[in-house]
Amino acid sequence: AETLPLHGLHVLVTAGPTQEPLDPVRYLTNHSTGKMGYAIAEQARDMGADVTLVSGPVTLSAPRGIDTVHVTTAQQMFNAVQEHFTQADLTIMAAAVGDFRPIEQSSEKIKKNGRINIDLQLTSNPDILAWAGEHKTADQTLCGFAMETQDLESNAAKKLTSKHCSMLVANNLNTPGAGFAVDTNVVTVLKPGATPDEPIIEHWNKMSKQELAERILTELAALR
Ligand code: C5P
Q1: What DSSP letter does each residue of 85-129 carry, written as one string?
Q2: Residue closest by Cα to atom 4 of ligand 1
Q3: CA angle, corner 80, sides to 17 and 30, nearest 5?
Q4: What's the ipTM?
Q5: Catalytic-residue membership of 30
Q6: What is the per-residue pLDDT for 179?
Q7: Which residues line ligand 1 (CB under 6 A)?
Q8: With a threshold of 0.90, does the pTM exceed it?
């Protein structure tokens, strides 16, 4: 039989949002549905890889044949990634990780107590992709995502370099057919060029998240 393109490879994928609790009933989160990350995980499985999916809270069901680790907070996602990263040949971080979490989590529901305004103190979460970029070995391939609302190429180029990615997939939230909760995506793909300020930039046409998953994985496999 013909060997599948990712046969024998371990693929690690992060997907979905994180939830950062304020108190037992409230949390900070974002609009990520996990569709892109789940499509990548399923496609990697279908291309023959051994897949670990670290997923934030989503309504999608755990895909068959994939080791799915469910997490809630960015810190939990970081712990799960740290546990699985060394075994991963390809890592794709499609999760929308909350950049900040409340400095303290109240053990009781926060009461209004007649207040008009309240101060909410936030502290930064670990950058999981940046950690992976710092710790990857020469034979590990790392792909990040970026969602931007302005200056897509320059912001994405900075992330590609600063997080030491092999490839970065950037989408503009304001482009029709791109972003959260839709089944298609329109992306700009960046790879390191001759110098850090001259990345290789490709504009890919609008396609389904399934098809995009296949194209991303094929590109990543070709980088190895
Ligand atoms: O810097 P920004 O959040 O735009 O970077 C997006 C990329 O970094 C995505 O691949 C996302 O999964 C990853 N990321 C992460 N941990 C964070 C923030 C972002 O892994 N705390």
Answers
A1: GGG-SEEEE--B--SEEESS--SSPPP-TT-S-----EEEPP-HH
A2: 146
A3: 10
A4: 0.97
A5: yes
A6: 85
A7: 14, 74, 93, 95, 97, 99, 125, 127-129, 144-146, 159
A8: yes
Q: Quick check: helix, strand or coil at residue 130?
A: helix
Q: Whose CA is nearest to atom 21 of ligand 1?
A: 127
Q: Is 126 labelled as part of a ligand binding site?
A: yes
Per-residue burial over 9-38, b if 16 or more Cβ lie within 10 Å, else e, is: bbbbbbbbbbbbbbeeeebbbeebbbbbbb
| pLDDT for the residue numbered 1 | 60
State the pLDDT at residue 4. 94
Residues of the chain with pLDDT under 50: none
Cα–Cα distance list, 208 to 4, 87, 177, 216 (Å): 22, 29, 9, 12
Q: Assess contact for 50 and 34: CB atoms under 8 A.
A: no
From ligand 1's centre to the CA of 163, what distance in Å? 9
Mutate to test the pocket of ligand 1, among 145, 162, 164, 173 (most ligand atoms within 8 A of CB): 145
